[in-house]
Amino acid sequence: MTAGHDHYSDEALRSILRRCRTIAMVGASANWVRPSYFAMKYLQGKGYRIIPVNPAAAGETVLGETVLGSLDELQAPVPMVDIFRNSQAAGGIVDEIIRLRSDKHFQVVWMQLGVRNDAAARRAEAAGLEVVMDRCPKIEYGRLTGELSWSGINSGIITAKVLRL
Fold it and tell me: pTM for the whole thing?
């Protein structure tokens, strides 16, 4: 992506969201008031398959998907891992992603809003993974398609037509 991870081009984010239609969400919650639940529900509504990963809720069902206890339990290739854990925990999760990368076909590590671990990002990139930090795929999808503008939020995109990823 970019050195320092302070800015991502719209085209780079759009490319990830187009390619990665299945996402493993580490830290997904069954609690409907948690941000991970909102993000999962929104992205499912946009046609993404979100596979929740949370050892504390393994075996439960969230929004029609069975919660896995770890990334190692994934049965199908998953191009993107969305980390809904804190910055410190992200380091260990990234190490797991790197270890499982070829077996699970991971391509992108996406760390949620407020989650930034530069050392983990460097390790992931050295292993050939793309990294996005301190961003939310739900928010970026809405911004890039103009949906945020419908709520009066300046998306930074000027157009009179509905955008598609």
Answer: 0.88
